[in-house]
Design a protein that fits this description.
The complex is a heterodimer of chains A (360) and B (283). Chain A is of the alpha+beta class and 360 residues long. Chain A has helices spanning 42-50, 92-102, 107-120, 136-148, 166-183, 194-200, 218-223, 228-233, and strands at residues 2-13, 16-27, 31-35, 57-62, 65-66, 78-80, 154-158, 186-191, 203-208, 211-216, 237-248, 251-256, 260-264, 274-280, 284-288, 296-305, 309-315, 321-327, 340-345, 350-354. The model of chain A has no long low-confidence stretch (mean pLDDT 88). Chain B is built from 13 helices and two strands. The chains are: A alpha+beta (360), B mainly alpha (283). The interface between A and B is medium-sized, with 29 and 22 residues.
């Protein structure tokens, strides 16, 4: 059953298209993320759903009801802002009670539901405090409790974790995901952080320049990117300019410089076209020693250890450099600078995209 | 951050000037307010009295002037707030290209001399002034309305003169109200009116308070406009004090009245800040 859907939704400021004809359907209880670089239109979509921005074209449906023209206070949605947007002049209790009072909930019922919402975010003891007396993470949890308390039909999140520090962000991700599962509440989550989107969502919509590039499960987005933009935006890509050397069915081979040839399992461009070659850092496997048949030869130019992962800068022939990433505990995690290595690159992680075809 | 020692050094020059030319004369007036004044002879030597203060409370005429001054202060503050808030809201939230022209319009009257502006109001409000002539010629009234030498005249004149201060304070405060907090209220079910009363208004309370205190203090201490629009007989505390000092040469009485005015101003400011803080949750 569809909980929220867009039909040909678009927004233009003057002649500037910010969102171009986005159509998608979110199922009841589903967690959907809109992912993209800043300025891709994802926040505009969220604000249109919330009723804070009027669409230029298209319709927004909540269940079967057309809410395109409804003012925000009539939509019954919960919105959590990046900057928390708590009411600074009200206590935590009154912040959470705000939406309930608007729905004419009073007395013991109000008290019970506010406490319940605060308990969900583990802030029962903080009802009498003012927002400024709380930490950033606590303020964000109050904002979530405030959005949840009136039992909205859909929860909207606008980059809710990007103001938190890394460790807190990780724990909040898990907490949020669990909360969403427990309540079974349909959720639309806007973020520019791909690991956030991939790890939390049932489906992810990747956007660029106002256009929905791909709307699919996190696995599909990662392993089967629909466009060159998605390929280069997701994961940690190497981007190099090259040429389509040969076509073979759906795939073919790409040439970097004059000699380096890589196989790619999906290429849209015709033979001879100039393209940007995108190679995922984590798809490059290194082994010390001479190249095996079908592998490339390179030299380790730099090793960078960052805890769980190790990154290498590998020099190939003709001055081509690739960054390869690997787990910091495997056999290829201790390669010293200057080591000759053999590079194996999975054809499924090599993509061709139109020359400078996207903003990153 | 500036260390407190450096902070002291930064404000030291101003503090010295204020201490020498403001605080010292004020403190020197304090003994004067407890002296006895003999008409024609000046201060009576060696006599100390609280009569000057007692008279302020007991004398009907003084009491009337005090109530008039306080009432005028409250009325003008309220009028400036009611007229100023919508305008400030338009300047803060209206189209960007209107902002500078509107602010210039607001501060333009301040470029004219206070005396000139007060004379302007005399030309408008006098018995045979523009307003009365117009109303009589339109046949709306047969005898001129009394718009000067009374509370109406002072209120109109002072509201006009102090409105810019209120508007500028309010514009700053309204621009500081975060839009996403208002958006949050809207998504939680607030109508536009409720967003305004429950969020915008309390969050602009610091500006309302600052603007009100400024206008109130300026109004109750205004001298030129009340003198011109109130004439020699319709007095407020500032004109009364001026006359005690300059016409009657009764310095003790003038000093006592000055301290009473200051005390009342401080009292009203203290009370209104407390009330505002409670209302806007700033406590």
């Amino acid at each position: 059953m569809s909980a929220l859907s867009f039909e040909q939704l678009g927004k233009a400021y003057g002649s500037d298209d910010v969102v171009t004809d986005v159509s998608l359907t979110i199922r009841q209880g589903e967690f959907v993320s809109l992912l993209g670089p800043s300025g891709c239109g994802k926040t505009t979509i969220l604000r249109m759903v919330a009723g804070l921005v009027a669409p230029s074209r298209g319709r927004i449906l909540l269940g079967t009801e057309d809410i395109t023209a409804l003012p925000p206070n009539k939509r019954g949605l919960g919105l959590v802002f990046q900057s928390y947007a708590l009411f600074p002049h009200l206590t935590v209790f009154e912040n959470v009670a705000f939406g309930l009072r608007r729905r004419k909930v009073t007395g013991a019922e109000l008290d019970r539901r506010v406490r319940e919402a605060l308990a969900r975010v583990r802030l029962e003891a903080y009802g009498e405090r003012f927002p400024r007396q709380l930490s950033g993470g606590q303020q964000q949890r109050v904002a979530i409790a405030r959005a949840l308390a009136p039992q909205p039909r859909v929860l909207l999140f606008d980059e809710p974790l990007s103001n938190l520090d890394a460790q807190l962000r990780d724990s909040m991700q898990i907490e949020l995901k669990r909360l969403q599962r427990d309540l079974g509440i349909t959720t639309l989550f806007v973020t520019h952080d791909q690991s956030e989107a991939l790890s939390m969502s049932d489906r992810v919509g990747v956007m660029a320049r106002g256009v929905m590039q791909q709307f699919a499960t996190p696995e599909d987005i990662y392993h089967r990117p629909a466009t060159g933009f998605v390929a280069s935006f997701i994961g940690k890509p190497n981007r190099l300019s090259g040429v389509v050397a040969a076509r073979d069915g759906k795939g073919g081979s790409l040439r970097l410089g004059s000699q380096l040839v890589l196989n790619a399992s999906s290429i849209d461009q015709p033979e001879g076209a100039k393209v940007d070659v995108v190679i995922r850092q984590e798809a490059i496997r290194l082994r010390s020693g001479d190249p095996e048949p079908g592998a490339l030869a390179g030299t380790i130019a730099l090793r960078s250890f960052s805890g769980a992962r190790v990154q290498y800068v590998v020099k190939l022939t003709e001055g081509v450099e690739l960054i390869a990433e690997t787990a910091s505990s495997g056999p290829d995690s201790v390669l010293a600078t200057g080591t000759l290595v053999s590079l194996t690159i999975d054809a499924g992680s090599v993509f061709a995209m139109a020359d400078h075809g996207a903003v990153v | 951050m500036i260390a407190s020692r450096h902070g002291l050094m930064l404000i030291a020059p101003l503090m010295l000037v204020l201490a020498a030319f403001f605080l010292l004369p004020v403190v020197m007036m304090l003994p004067t307010s407890f002296r006895e004044y003999a008409p024609g002879a000046g201060l009576v030597p060696g006599v100390w009295t609280t009569e000057n203060y007692a008279r302020i409370v007991t004398d009907d005429y003084y009491r009337e002037v005090i109530w008039r001054t306080m009432g005028l202060g409250l009325f003008v503050t309220l009028a400036c707030l009611l007229l100023g808030y919508p305008l400030a809201f338009l300047i803060a939230r209206g189209p960007e290209r209107w902002r500078v022209p509107l602010i210039l319009l607001v501060i333009f009257p301040m470029m004219l001399n206070l005396v000139v502006r007060s004379f302007g109001w005399i030309a408008l409000l006098a018995n045979r002034g523009l307003v009365n002539n117009l109303l009589i010629q339109l046949g709306l009234i047969s005898t001129p309305l009394k718009l000067m030498f009374n509370l109406t005249g002072l209120m109109i004149g002072l509201t006009h003169i102090y409105l810019p201060f209120m508007v500028l304070m309010l514009v700053a405060a309204i621009r500081n109200v975060p839009r996403h907090v208002e958006a949050a209220a809207a998504t939680l079910g607030s109508s536009r009116l409720h967003v305004f009363t429950a969020v915008t208004l309390p969050l602009s309370a610091p500006g309302i308070l600052a603007g009100s205190i400024l206008v109130f203090v300026l109004t109750i201490s205004a001298l030129v406009t009340p003198r011109m629009l109130g004439g020699p007989t319709y007095k407020v505390m500032a004109t009364l004090i001026y006359d005690e000092f300059m016409q009657l040469l009764d310095w003790p009485s003038g000093s006592a009245l000055s301290f009473a005015l200051t005390a009342m101003a401080i009292g009203v400011i203290w009370l209104s800040s407390r009330l505002t803080r409670r209302w806007a949750g700033m406590a």
